[in-house]
Fold each of these.
Amino acid sequence: SYLSMNVQAQFSYDLQGHRGSRGIMPENTIPSMIKALDLGATTLELDLAITKDGEVIVSHEPWMNPVICLDPQGNEIPDQDKSHNIFQMSFEEVIQYDCGSKFHSGFPQQVKFHVTKPRLSDLIDAVEKYVEDFNLPRPNYNIEIKSMADGDGIFHPNPKDFSDKVLALLLSKISPERFNVQSFDFRVLQYIHDAYPGITLAMLVDNASKYEEQLQELGFKPRIYSPYFVALTKEIVAALHENGMKVIPWTVNTSEQMGKLLDMKVDGIITDYPNLAPRR
Ligand code: G3P
Ligand code: CA
């Protein structure tokens, strides 16, 4: 069983489980979130797509990625095939795909079992029930809206409509202090900043050395600046802090690197391996 023993470590920083606990469980699934909670994650990071019948689905790609999913017959999907497009599927079709049984060479320790992509609403219900049943601290949610055109014929919905749909769902289920929206798509951040001023936003970027230009382009200071960790320095962290932002880098997968970033005074760490997070 994937339900483990609720062994909780306490962390003084925001330990964010990337796609749940991707190093251990099939990514962006309910078991991946439950495992992250057991490992002491304070925030659950996840990505969203949306079906043609308007269901918000937890998935990194808006298609059934051949690296992680089997087709409805249980067969492999050819490499690079993006034709199993979630935006063009109903939810009933989405749950025909097993996205947990296939060996993932990037995460060889992942436990393998049949699991389907969940709806965001079902994932939140399962997490909230789990923490209540086992008297665990309530986690926060770091919700990524993936709305940038990816090429190869994948149609992406209008970022405003997508954001409205996601926020209506989130606000109906959890209080706004318990979630933030993150995006690489500045249109999403700008829209939510204007239309939902109370919502915490995290700006996703690749290269922290360009933070001044990035913030200028965005046009406002988000509450959280979330760069790829490699170019981050303690000077950049300090400058962002002076400007009132938190700094939460992604995706940091060794204890040593997590320790270096915590020494730079980052506010949180996004990791596929919450089990490797330093106790501080
Ligand atoms: O939370 C940030 C991180 O998830 C961004 O990268 O590609 O894993 O969504 P990606
Ligand atoms: Ca993400």
Note: Strands lie at 14-17, 43-50, 56-58, 140-145, 179-183, 200-205, 224-227, 246-247, 268-271.
Amino acid sequence: MAVFVTRRIPAEGLRLLSQASGCRVQQWDSDEPVPRAELLAGVAGARGLLCLLSDRIDREVLDAAGPGLKVISTLSVGFDHLALDEIKKRGIRVGYTPDVLTDATAELSVALLLSACRRLPEAAEQVKSGGWTTWKPLWMCGYGLSDSTVGIIGLGRIGQAVARRLKPFGVSKFLYTGSGPKPESAAEFGAEFVPLTRLAEESDFVVVTCALTPATQGLCNKDFFSRMKKTSVFVNTSRGAVVNQEDLYEALAQGRIAAAGLDVTTPEPLPTDHPLLSLRNCVILPHIGSATYATRSTMAVLAAKNLLAGLRGEPMPHELQL
Ligand code: NDP
Ligand code: DGY
């Protein structure tokens, strides 16, 4: 069974594949993305494909693979890079990596929120540049979580884990939005299901943890930011395309919102001359939500197990229901 792995992945995952009987592994053994031509060539004749969120798996790739492709295993919980309709039509099974990265991503979301609202990168820069001249009562002030209202867009696994971590900071109210109320998930935080407009208007902190779908693409736009309070902080750890970045730039540059923290952008990587990078009130990270050694290793093992189970026609540890 030929398997194509589109990137260098943690050794534990690759070892599982290499040691599996009957499995012949071909890999793009680099930290850099596989060039499209290499992807199309590498996948030809493969029965299994282990891919990353940065690989666009569309009709062209599926055609290049041919009818022998039976399983796609993505090293991610997000699956917006997969052409699911086409994959389903061809009877290909898909594995993904939910749960195992929830804690790491929630932790990073909280770190990013605190960095943005307490202006950590800006303040640290002042220490290095000599801007720190004395203790000043009105200098480097930001916004804290005590008695705040936090609005969560997408109260899924990561959204709940973020709320669980923020609650002990003294948050007084949680709001959330999504495709419908989730009373069981919301009960732990006393979170109230509200329309997106009300979430924007009432939240001191907005945290985006939804999946990228046609319904969430561009959800945070000019109208959304114009409803937010001038003192509010916006954080996105889902996917860049949930946000209209031009609208976010205007809102930040004109002081219509206080600050933003982004772990995800459009495109990725964000060009170094992008206007958002010129703003002092915007903290941008290079999509590192799940980047702890342990989490990435566990993700790789899970992705390998999903792939092997799919190749053997067995139940996968985590199969996406198409
Ligand atoms: P879940 O499926 O558990 O949660 C996704 C949530 O999105 C659901 O609660 C769902 O709500 C919500 N959602 C769907 N449609 C809408 C909508 N129209 N408006 C608001 N919310 C909506 O996934 P996870 O929590 O495990 O992961 C969420 C996303 O986080 C992933 O898809 C991925 O894109 C991103 N991610 C980013 C990482 C990073 O490194 N920055 C790391 C890991 C994940 P409902 O149930 O009501 O439909
Ligand atoms: C995912 O899994 O979807 C993240 O974006 C990376 O871990």
Note: The mean pLDDT is 98.
